[in-house]
Amino acid sequence: MHQIQEKLLELSKKPGFGDMSLRTMATEIGLPQESPQKVKHHLQQLEKKGFFTLDKVKGSVSHIPKWAGDVIKSGATLFSIPVIGTANCGPATIFAEPNYQGFLKVSSKLLGRKSAQGLYAVKGDGSSMNLAEFDGKNLEDGDYAIVDSTIHAPSNNDAVLAIIDSKATIKRFIEDKENDQIVLKADSSYDYEPIYLHADDDFQINGKVIGVIKRPK
Question: Same domain, yes or no, for 41 and 97?
């Protein structure tokens, strides 16, 4: 995310943000010489990502951002699910620092849930989970995996988002008690080596994958 956009998001937490002029916003984020049009451009980019609703007449922001977990009211119930970056569906090579990319607007009917509480989305990168099915949908490269962040103690064979040495990967979770190890296994039409872990290793489970939103072909 552009530095100006990050500053505007931080500023949006302040009361009265929606009533600020573009010049005031520039001053508040420490860029008093920045042109109002440039500030407006970055606000529009944030709107496209789902953070704001802009007042096109005033040229300012009229609503506070819809933060993670909000439900957008419409004819059908839509969840506004934060997209926090990319997770590797191959070796664990994608850094997992929080990287909000906007919101994925998803019908509640697609997920079979009444609430979006605890859900976030990551974009899959790679093919090591292309045989994993969620309600008949495979998780392929470019698809969005929907993760329930409230589940940190998965059952065997659950698909999870794991963080290993500050890097994210989506794999099948297998607790191999006989050999005193945890195995993160691919579910793929390709031959990927599993990841073998000890319970004391530096890793964590950041949730269970509970659904897939397919990328249009």
Answer: no
Distances, alpha carbon 108 to alpha carbons 65, 77, 131, 160, in Å: 21, 6, 24, 21
Q: How many whole angstroms separate alpha carbon 98 and alpha carbon 86?
A: 10
pLDDT digits (tens, 9 = 90+) for 22-68: 899 999 999 999 888 898 888 877 776 666 666 544 544 544 444 33
What's the total number of domains in the chain? Answer: 2
Distance between CA atoms of residues 94 and 157, nearest Å: 22
Q: 127 versus 13: which is more confidently predicted?
A: 127
In this structure, are residues 140 and 125 in contact, taking their beta carbons and an 8 Å threshold?
Answer: no
Question: In terms of domains, do 121 and 194 share one?
Answer: yes
Pairing status of strand 78-88 against strand 102-107: antiparallel
Residues 125 and 169 in one domain: yes
Answer for the pair 71, 116: CB distance below 8 angstroms, yes or no.
yes
Domain span at residue 148 reads: 71-213
Residue 85 confidence (pLDDT): 79
Same domain, 57 and 100: no
Compute φ and ψ for 155, nearest 5 degrees: -90, 165
